[in-house]
Write a structure and sequence with these properties.
By secondary structure, this protein is an alpha/beta fold. It has 2 domains: 122 residues, NAD(P)-binding Rossmann-like Domain (Rossmann fold), CATH 3.40.50; 111 residues, Rossmann fold, CATH 3.40.50. It is built from 7 helices and 12 strands. The strands form 2 sheets. Strands 3-2-1-4-5-12 form a 6-stranded parallel beta sheet, with helices on both faces. A 6-stranded parallel beta sheet has the order 6-11-10-7-8-9.
Length: 249
């Protein structure tokens, strides 16, 4: 009998869970525990992580997991690498469900960088009004550059530890729209956006609004994760679980 473990934290993970429930397949979704208020899920959930690759492998064996789906955020490299190791050691069917990344379009003003250090180098100079759209975990990278104004958007009211005095924190879990993000950028007179190439539909509004307003974007590229099968579509992952793994694909 199929028994699926989804490493979650994304919209795609939640959608896959709903599809598996509708098919009446046994499935569990896990969260690392970083998110304080997790959206209600259609399948059983576990929180807090597994304790690295070894802990994940032990859970897979103990619970007789047959399929492991890494549907975490594209920048959650530690979890993804642990999943690769655990899948290899247990022999479980394994796939990564990863949303497609954004591509630069005509009219965009992107400055692509490999990591946060590269992003910091771009704002070392004079005063700018920066929309720091990278999530709360990484904002500390920019604390030393106190000359700028920063706009931070977070999805919940948990305390934000951020040093620069010229900053504004807004709470908004979305959904985000082109019109609202354009108004936001104009309201705070944003001159530069720093964001990660997370991809997907949910956070794309700021990319389209920046193009319309000709605001430069510092785009942090995705880290490369090798040695795994990647599928970019939730329905195709569902089909892989239901049909293709029975044929050894």
């Amino acid at each position: 009998m199929k028994n699926i473990l989804i490493l979650g934290g994304t919209t795609e993970a939640r959608q896959l869970g709903s599809m598996l429930k509708a098919k009446k397949l046994k499935a569990t979704i896990s969260f690392s525990g970083i998110i304080p208020n997790i959206t209600e899920q259609s399948i059983p959930k576990i929180c807090g992580g597994f304790g690295g690759a070894k802990g994940l492998a032990e859970y897979i064996s103990k619970k007789n997991i047959t399929h492991l789906v890494d549907a975490t955020h594209p920048f959650s490299t530690n979890i993804s690498e642990n999943a690769i190791i655990a899948a290899k050691s247990t022999g479980v069917h394994f796939v990564a469900l990863e949303r497609k990344q954004w591509s630069e379009e005509l009219g965009d003003k992107w400055m692509k960088v490999k990591d946060f250090d590269g992003a910091k180098q771009i704002i070392t100079g004079q005063f700018q009004r920066v929309f720091l759209a990278i999530g709360r975990k990484e904002i500390g990278h920019f604390s030393e550059y106190t000359q700028h104004f920063y706009l931070l958007r977070v999805i919940d009211s948990s305390p934000v530890n951020f040093g620069p005095p010229k900053s504004q924190i807004i709470i908004d879990k979305g959904p985000y729209t082109f019109e609202n993000d354009k108004k936001l950028l104009l309201k705070y007179n944003i001159t530069k956006i720093i964001t990660k190439n997370s991809g997907g539909v949910g956070a794309r509004a700021k990319i389209d609004a920046a193009r319309d307003l000709q605001i430069p974007i510092v785009m942090i590229e995705r880290p490369e994760i090798h040695s795994r099968k990647v599928i970019h579509d939730t329905e195709l992952v569902f089909d892989w679980i239901v049909h293709k793994t029975d044929r050894g694909e």
